[in-house]
Design a protein that fits this description.
The complex is a heterotrimer of chains A (785), B (160) and C (152). With 785 residues, chain A is of the alpha+beta class. Chain A is built from 20 helices and 28 strands. Chain A folds into three domains: 211 residues, Aldehyde Oxidoreductase, domain 3 (Alpha-Beta Complex); 323 residues, 2-Layer Sandwich (Aldehyde Oxidoreductase, domain 4), CATH 3.30.365.10; 146 residues, Aldehyde oxidase/xanthine dehydrogenase, molybdopterin binding domain (Aldehyde Oxidoreductase, domain 4, 2-Layer Sandwich), CATH 3.30.365.10. Chain B folds into two domains: 74 residues, Beta-grasp domain (Ubiquitin-like (UB roll)), CATH 3.10.20; 69 residues, Orthogonal Bundle (DNA polymerase, domain 1), CATH 1.10.150. The chains are: A alpha+beta (785), B alpha+beta (160), C alpha+beta (152). At the A-B interface, helix 1 and helix 18 of A face helix 2, helix 3, helix 4 and helix 5 of B.
C-alpha cells in the first residue's frame, strides 16, 4: 500500500495513545517534585493592599509563598504582546503592564497574585486558600461596549478610555462613495460570541532548576516550545536561551490556547530557582476557564451596497473587539491583520473599509482561538451575503457566484494577494453533495411533520501558512514566521526529521513521514519525526495558523532537496556516473537506464564511513533548511448546512453538513477530513452552544462544563467532506493548510440555515433553543400585527 | 489514612492512602498508570473512565478507599503489552478509523466504547450510530467532531 | 436579584426590634453561622459556613447594622471571604410594623458572590440566596415564637 503523498496512511502515533502510553506533561513526575498552587483574584478589579501569607506558611508541607513584589524584584520581565498595531492617528497601541504575579492591582477574576509551593498538590491548594489578600474593590468592566463609556473605570493608566488602538484598513472615501452609488444596501449588527478554547488536556508546567549547571528545564503544554523559550529568555529574563530547555511532549490539543507563555510557566521557572526544587503546576478545568486566553468577542456593524446587477459596490465594517485585561501575545493582530484583511472573502470588492477599536475589560485576555480573526471576518461576510440575497429575493448561491473572484492572482484592497482557487467549482461540488435540488421537497416533507427546515451557505477564504516574515514584520509582527527543519539520514539509511512544527493532535508523525517516504521511496517505518524539544530541534516557530504543512513541511522539502543533491553526488562518484543520471527509487540510488545501483542505506553508510567521497565533500548526511514563505496560502471552501427546527421547543437539529474545501495538495486525506470534522464541530459549538458569560461585576459564570456547553456527540451529525485541489504556487508541495477551515467557515452556515428555517434574520450566536424559540415568537407576533 | 487492596489490570495492588484520594489519583500517582486522564473537575468529560467490576465508572468521582476488593481495568490493561501484543479490537478500530487526534480523551472513549458494545450485545440490542452518540453523553472530545469516534465504535462492534 | 418576604410575628414590635439587635439571636438565626461577636453596637465579626452547589466554604467576615431607625427597621449587611472559594456579600432592608400585639416584618434582600462560587455555583446562587434569606427570617420567626412568651 502506498504511503506517499495523497495516501490514507493510518497514524503511526496512535498505538501509544490507544494503549495509554502517551506521555503528556502531567504524566511526568520528577524526583524532587514540589507543587505550585496560585492565589488568584476573586475580584474583577481591585487594588491589592496587602498579602498575608503567615497562616499558609505555617501549614503542613508548605515550602514557600511568593508574590509579585519578589518576582519583579528578581528582575522577571512583564508579559508582552508581540505584534505592534498602530492607531490610524499614528500613535502606538497602549500596552498595559502585565506582571506574571500582580503587584498593586488585580484586573480580572483569576489574575495570579501569589504562588504557594508545597510538598504535595493538595497541600499547595489548601494553603493557597489560607493566603489572605487585602483587596480594595474597584468598579469593573465586564462587557466591551461598556469599556468606552465616559464614566468607565480605567483599567490601565496608560490606556485612557481603556482604548488599546483605533485602527483602520482600506479606503473609507472609496467605500463611502461605493455605498452612495448603491441601489441596495444591507446593514447588519453582529456579535461574535466569546469562546473558551478548551483543549481537553488542561495546561501544565513543570520547571526544574539545576543549581550545579544554573540551567532550567521546562516541560510544558505548548504549541511552540521554541517561541516559549525565546520569550522566556529575551523578554521575561528567566534565563539565557543556552541555559533554558523547553520541552513540549505529547500535548492534548491546543486550538490557540497553548501558543502563549502564561504567568504560570514564568512563575514556576522562577520559583524553581528560588526554592531549588522542581515545581509542577497542573491547571484544573475551572482554572482553565479562568485563565486560558479566550477567543472572538467582537461587536460589529456592517454595511454592504449592491448595484443593479447585484455586484458589491461598497462594503464598510466597524468592529469593536474585547482584548480582556491584558494584551496577550498575538491579541493585537487577531482583530486586525487576521480579520480585516479577509473581509473581501471570495468576492471581487474594490471599495472596502474596516475600522477596528479594541478595548481593555476586566476579563481574561482574549487572543487567537482556532481561526483567529478569520472566523469573525467570515461570519460578517457570509451573514451579509445571505441577508442581502434574502433582501434582494435572490438565490444566495447565485448572489455569491455573481460576485466571485474568477481570475488569479487577485489583489484585494485589504493587503492580500490571493494566489489560486476555483470558487465556482467548490460551490458547485458542495451544492451537488448537499442535494440542493431536492431541498424544496425535503422542506415540504418536514413541514408535514411540523418542523421548520432551512438551508444556509458559507463560502469563505482564509489566509494561512503564517507567514512571510518580511510582510509580517512590516505589519508589526515582532518575530519572523518561517519554519526550520533538519533531515538526518543515519548510516543505515533510516531518517529522522527534526521539525520546529509541533503536533498536538495533527498527526505530524505520520504526514511528515509520508512526504519523506514519498520523496526517497523508502518504507515509512524508516522515518521518525522529532519535535517539541529545544535541545533537539534547532529552532522553530511552532504550530498555529494552519502553518505546519505550508511552512513546516516546506522546510522539510528544502532540506530534502539538499540531501538529495548530496546523495546523488555520492552515488555518481561511487557508481562512476554523471550526477544528472542518478535517480532515487525503490529503495535504491540508480544510474538511470543501467543496472548500476546502490542501496539507499549504502549511500548513507558511504557518507558516514567517508572512505570514498568526492573530492572536498564533508562526511555525513544531514541537512538543515529554513523556509520563509513568499505569501500566505489561501485555502477556501463552500459549506452548506441543513437544519430542522422544532418550533415548539426551539431545538435545532443539524440534519446535514456538507463541506467542500480547497486545501491545495493533500498529503493524507484521512487526517485532513479529521481536521475538517473537528473544526466544523467547534464552529457548530460556537453557533449553537458555546458562550463565555461574565456577570456585570466581571465574575465568570461559565467556569465548568456544567455551565459552558461543549458540543457532545449527540449534538453533531456525520459530515460530508470533499476536496478540490488547486495547488498553492507559493510552496514546493502546493499545500495550503487545513486546520482552521472548519471553524472559520461553519458558524455563518449554521446561523444562515436557522434564520432561513424560522424566517427571522435577527438571531445571535449561540442559537440556543431559548434564543431560537424567542426569534420564532417574534416572527409570529410580527406576522400577527 | 486507610489501607486499600484491589486488583488493577489483573494484578493485586495495595496502598495506604488518605481517605479523600480519588481513584484517578490513586491510579495516576500511586500506581503511575497515567493512561487515565483528568480533563475536568466536575465529572463531565469522561477522560478518566475505567471499569470497576466490569462497569464503566468515572474514576475522578470515585474514592479509592471505597474499592477494597474491587477489580479495576484501565486502558493499560486492555493489552498485555510487549512488542507483538495483540491490541483490543476497540484500540485497533480507533486507529483504523482515525478515531483520535490529540489522544487525551481517547482512553476514556475506548473504555466507554467497550462497555457500550458489550452491554448492547448482552441485551441483544442494535448499537446504531444514534445510540452510540447518545451513549457518549458523558465523554467530551474537542478534536474529532465525534464523526470518526462513532465510526470506530461501530467498526469495533462488528469485531468484538 | 432582590428577594422579598413578609412574616407575621406574635410579639410586640419592641421585642422584635430588641431581638434584631441581639447578637446571640442573630447567631442562632443566620444559617450556617458558627461565630458572631459584637465589636461595637452596630458591628460584628462572623464565621459562616455556606454551601452553594459544589462549593462549601467557611466565610470570615463582618456584619454591620446601618440605616438604624429604632424600632421601625434597619439594614443588615454582611460581607465575607471564603479564601479560594471567593466572597459573598448580602444585605437586607428590614421593616417592622406594629399590628396590635403582633409585628409584621417585611424584608428586601440581595446577594452577590464572586470567585469560585460564582464559576461553579452561579446557576444556584439566586435560589440559594433566596433559600438562605428565607431561612434566616424563618429561624428568626421561630425563635421569637418559642421564646416570646418567656420574655413577655
Amino acid at each position: 500500500m502506498s504511503t506517499g503523498i495523497g495516501a490514507r496512511v493510518k497514524r503511526k502515533e496512535d498505538k501509544r495513545f490507544t494503549t495509554g502510553k502517551g506521555k503528556y506533561t502531567d504524566d511526568i513526575r520528577n524526583d524532587n517534585q514540589a507543587y505550585a498552587a496560585f492565589v488568584r483574584s476573586t475580584h474583577a478589579h481591585a487594588n491589592i493592599k496587602g498579602i498575608d501569607a503567615s497562616a499558609a506558611l505555617a501549614m503542613d508541607g508548605v515550602i514557600e509563598v511568593l508574590d509579585g513584589h519578589q518576582l519583579t524584584g528578581d528582575g522577571i520581565g512583564n508579559i508582552i504582546c508581540g505584534w505592534a498595531v498602530t492607531s490610524k492617528d499614528g500613535s502606538p497601541m497602549n500596552m498595559g503592564a502585565w506582571s506574571a504575579l500582580a503587584t498593586s492591582k488585580a484586573r480580572y477574576v483569576g489574575d495570579a497574585i501569589a504562588v504557594v509551593i508545597a510538598e504535595t498538590q493538595a497541600q499547595a491548594r489548601i494553603a493557597a486558600e489560607a493566603v489572605v489578600v487585602d483587596y480594595e474593590e474597584l468598579p469593573a468592566i465586564a462587557h466591551v461596549m461598556k469599556a468606552m463609556a465616559e464614566d468607565a473605570p480605567n483599567i490601565h493608566e496608560n490606556a485612557p478610555g481603556n482604548l488599546i488602538y483605533d485602527w483602520e484598513l482600506g479606503d473609507e472615501a472609496l467605500a463611502d462613495a461605493g455605498l452612495a452609488s448603491a441601489t441596495h444596501i444591507t446593514t447588519l449588527d453582529l456579535t461574535n460570541n466569546r469562546l473558551s478554547p478548551n483543549p481537553m488536556e488542561p495546561r501544565v508546567a513543570i520547571a526544574t532548576y539545576d543549581d550545579a549547571e544554573e540551567h532550567y528545564t521546562l516541560h510544558t503544554t505548548s504549541q511552540n516550545p521554541h517561541v516559549a523559550r525565546l520569550l522566556l529568555s529575551a523578554f521575561y529574563q528567566v534565563a539565557p536561551e543556552n541555559k533554558l530547555r523547553v520541552i513540549a511532549p505529547d500535548v492534548g490539543g491546543g486550538f490557540g490556547a497553548k501558543i502563549y507563555v502564561y504567568p504560570e510557566e514564568i512563575t514556576c521557572l522562577w520559583a524553581s530557582m528560588r526554592t531549588n526544587r522542581s515545581i509542577k503546576w497542573t491547571s484544573d478545568r475551572s482554572e482553565a476557564f479562568l485563565t486560558d486566553a479566550h477567543g472572538r468577542d467582537h461587536v460589529t456593524t456592517a454595511k454592504m451596497g449592491f448595484d443593479d446587477n447585484h455586484k458589491i459596490v461598497g462594503f464598510k465594517v466597524d468592529t469593536v473587539a474585547n482584548l480582556g485585561a491584558y494584551m496577550s501575545l498575538f491579541s493585537s493582530s487577531v482583530p486586525t491583520y487576521l480579520y480585516a484583511t479577509l473581509l473581501s472573502g471570495q468576492y471581487n470588492i474594490q471599495n472596502l473599509h474596516c475600522n477596528v477599536r479594541t478595548y481593555y475589560t476586566n476579563t481574561v485576555p482574549v487572543d487567537a482561538y482556532r481561526g483567529a480573526g478569520r472566523p469573525e471576518a467570515t461570519y460578517v461576510m457570509e451573514r451579509m451575503m445571505e441577508t442581502a440575497a434574502r433582501e434582494l429575493d435572490m438565490d444566495p448561491a447565485e448572489l455569491r457566484r455573481i460576485n466571485f473572484i474568477q481570475t488569479f492572482p487577485h489583489q484585494t484592497p485589504m493587503l492580500m494577494a490571493y494566489d489560486a482557487g476555483d470558487f465556482p467549482k467548490i460551490l458547485e461540488m458542495a451544492q451537488d453533495a448537499a442535494d440542493i435540488a431536492g431541498f424544496a421537497a425535503r422542506k415540504t416533507e418536514a413541514a408535514g411533520r411540523g418542523k421548520l427546515r432551512g438551508i444556509g451557505y458559507s463560502t469563505f477564504i482564509e489566509a494561512c501558512g503564517l507567514a512571510p516574515s518580511q510582510a509580517a514584520g512590516s505589519l508589526g509582527a515582532g518575530v519572523g514566521l518561517w519554519e526550520s527543519a533538519e533531515v538526518r539520514v543515519n548510516p543505515v539509511g533510516s531518517i529522522e526529521i527534526l521539525t520546529g512544527s509541533h503536533s498536538h493532535g495533527q498527526g505530524h508523525e505520520t504526514t511528515f513521514a509520508q512526504i519523506v517516504a514519498d520523496r526517497f521511496d523508502i518504507p515509512i517505518e524508516s522515518v521518525s519525526i522529532v519535535h517539541g524539544d529545544t535541545d533537539k530541534v534547532q529552532f522553530g516557530m511552532g504550530t498555529y495558523g494552519s502553518r505546519s504543512a505550508p511552512v513546516g513541511m516546506s522546510a522539510v522539502v528544502k532540506a530534502m532537496d539538499k540531501v538529495e543533491a548530496k546523495v546523488k553526488k555520492i552515488a555518481a562518484h561511487t557508481l562512476e556516473a554523471a550526477e544528472e543520471d542518478i535517480v532515487i527509487e525503490g529503495g535504491q540510488v540508480k544510474v538511470a537506464g543501467t543496472d548500476k545501483a546502490m542501496g539507499w542505506h549504502e549511500v548513507g553508510l558511504a557518507a558516514y564511513i567517508a572512505h570514498n567521497l568526492p573530492e572536498g565533500m564533508e562526511p555525513g548526511l544531514k541537512e538543515t533548511a529554513f523556509f520563509d514563505p513568499v505569501n500566505f496560502s489561501f485555502p477556501s471552501g463552500a459549506f452548506i448546512c441543513e437544519v430542522e427546527v422544532d418550533p415548539d421547543t426551539g431545538v435545532t437539529e443539524i440534519i446535514k453538513f456538507t463541506a467542500a474545501d480547497d486545501f491545495g495538495t493533500i498529503i493524507n486525506p484521512m487526517i485532513v477530513e479529521g481536521q475538517v470534522h473537528g473544526g466544523v464541530t467547534q464552529g457548530i459549538g460556537q453557533a449553537l452552544l458555546e458562550q463565555v458569560v461574565y456577570d456585570d461585576d466581571g465574575q465568570l459564570l461559565t467556569g465548568s462544563y456544567m455551565d459552558y456547553t461543549m458540543p457532545r456527540a449527540a449534538d453533531i451529525p456525520f459530515f460530508d467532506v470533499s476536496h478540490h485541489e488547486t495547488p498553492s504556487p507559493n510552496n514546493p508541495l502546493g499545500v495550503k493548510g487545513c486546520g482552521e477551515a472548519g471553524a472559520i467557515g461553519s458558524p455563518p452556515a449554521v446561523i444562515n440555515a436557522i434564520t432561513d428555517a424560522i424566517g427571522n434574520n435577527n438571531l445571535a450566536m449561540p442559537a440556543t433553543p431559548q434564543a431560537v424559540w424567542r426569534a420564532i415568537q417574534a416572527t409570529k407576533s410580527v406576522a400577527a400585527e | 489514612m486507610t489501607t486499600v487492596n484491589m486488583t488493577v489490570n489483573g494484578k493485586a495492588v495495595s496502598g495506604n492512602i488518605p481517605d479523600n484520594t480519588l481513584l484517578s489519583e490513586f491510579l495516576r500517582e500511586n500506581l503511575r498508570l497515567t493512561g487515565t486522564h483528568i480533563g475536568c473537575d466536575t465529572s463531565q468529560c469522561g477522560a478518566c473512565v475505567v471499569h470497576i467490576n466490569g462497569m464503566p465508572v468515572k474514576s475522578c468521582s470515585t474514592l479509592a478507599v471505597s474499592l477494597d476488593g474491587a477489580e479495576v481495568l484501565t486502558i493499560e490493561g486492555l493489552t498485555k503489552g510487549g512488542k507483538d501484543a495483540e491490541l483490543h479490537p476497540m484500540q485497533v478500530a480507533f486507529n483504523d478509523n482515525h478515531g483520535l487526534q490529540c489522544g487525551f480523551c481517547t482512553p476514556g472513549m475506548i473504555m466507554t466504547g467497550i462497555d457500550m458494545v458489550k452491554r448492547y450485545k448482552a441485551e441483544g440490542k442494535d448499537l446504531t450510530s444514534d445510540a452510540i452518540r447518545a451513549e457518549l453523553e458523558g465523554n467530551i472530545c474537542r478534536c474529532t467532531g465525534y464523526h470518526n469516534i462513532v465510526k470506530s465504535i461501530e467498526d469495533a462492534a462488528t469485531k468484538m | 436579584m432582590d428577594m422579598t418576604g413578609e412574616y407575621r410575628i406574635a410579639a410586640a414590635r419592641d421585642v422584635v426590634w430588641a431581638a434584631l439587635n441581639d447578637a446571640e439571636v442573630l447567631k442562632a438565626c443566620i444559617p450556617g453561622c458558627q461565630e458572631l461577636e459584637k465589636t461595637s453596637d452596630t458591628e460584628m465579626t462572623a464565621l459562616v459556613v455556606l454551601k452553594i452547589g459544589p462549593v462549601k466554604a467557611k466565610f470570615k467576615g463582618a456584619v454591620e447594622l446601618v440605616n438604624i431607625n429604632a424600632p421601625e427597621g434597619y439594614t443588615i449587611q454582611g460581607e465575607g471571604t471564603g479564601g479560594i472559594a471567593g466572597y459573598a456579600k448580602g444585605s437586607a432592608d428590614v421593616a417592622l410594623a406594629a399590628d396590635g400585639d403582633e409585628t409584621v416584618l417585611t424584608f428586601t434582600a440581595n446577594a452577590n458572590v464572586g470567585g469560585k462560587i460564582a464559576q461553579l455555583g452561579s446557576r444556584l446562587i439566586d435560589s440559594t440566596a433566596k433559600k438562605l434569606a428565607n431561612k434566616f427570617f424563618d429561624n428568626f420567626h421561630k425563635h421569637l415564637s418559642n421564646e416570646g412568651p418567656e420574655e413577655t
